Amino acid sequence: MDFDMLVHEAWPAYEQRVYDGWVLRYAGGVTKRANSVLALGRPVDRGGAIETAERFYRERGQRCVFSVGLGAAPGLDEELEARGYELVDPTLVMAGSLRPEALDEAAPEVRIEERPWPGWLETWWAVDGRFGSGLQDAERICTGVPAWYGAYEEDGVALAVGRAVPQGDTLGIYCMATLPEARRRGLARAVLRALARHAGTDSAYLVTTAPNQAAQALYRGEGFEIAGRYHYRVR
Prior knowledge:
- The protein contains eight helices and eleven strands.
- It is α+β, with helices and mostly antiparallel strands.
- Strands 1-2-3-4-11-5-10-9-8-7-6 form an eleven-stranded mixed β-sheet, sandwiched between helices.
- The longest helix is centred in the first third of the chain and has 13 residues, at 46-58.
- The model has no long low-confidence stretch (mean pLDDT 92).
């Protein structure tokens, strides 16, 4: 699978400019994923392409960020390092087939909708909202492609949430978040399984930061294994 493109398509920046095969992405500064250069292929003039990218983000008041995965142009990572770009946020792509027996197991009832509702957004942002006042931009990113939104709720409060993006014969899992007081109850697992059941597929992938060992253990227990890696280079 081309995970670089799957992630790009599932988390779409609402402003995109293609320059010599690279995609310059901007979405209000909310997440590096939607505010970075997807540098696939080999531009005719790599130095000129880097400078064009730097100008693109400078005009928008943002630092220039490159997403560097398996499909990145050869030598790009080394050149960015030489230019003073810092390596940050090493990320794992995990993929696999969810265990069929797990999908059939009795589980807490999970609400699933085709758009995020206020409670879903509030919970996700409470856990993963590292971007100040950018919730509207985040919602705009999420709803840029068809997706399903799942949440386990108690007394009207979403305790655990997730987002599933159908992409051909696989399912992209995003925005997995559980409120701190509701952790260690199996709610993230219940949301993940409910989204997979709803999608009708057992093939899925997701991304998680390399240091997050707890999340990786959860996903391995659900049939996922490391299938790719990427990181960011930040000016």
